[in-house]
Amino acid sequence: MEEAVYVIRLTKDSTSDFGGGGELAIDLDSGGGGGESVLPSEQRYSATLVLGLGTVHVGLGVVSAALAVLALFVETEVNQYASGLWAGIVYIGCGITGILAYSR
Asked: Do strands 36-38 and 7-12 pair parallel, antiparallel, or not at all (unpaired)?
């Protein structure tokens, strides 16, 4: 199965009335002719990228949680609140969300 490849070009609209800053838009060109201008929130990402980042988050969360549990037994004074364990749980949750987004 072949994935679509997009070329991203950032453009600035100079006709805006707001302090000369203009609006930022992204032109996505999939190779099929004139690309359309979309906002960054409307940009689509590759599903395999989402799966990969979700997997990395789960892996780092497991490592963080494992090191925090180890630190609870080795250096109890330094690791009173087990912040690495809580952060690991958050990482794992974000990773699972990414993996579920891939399956959608």
From this structure: unpaired
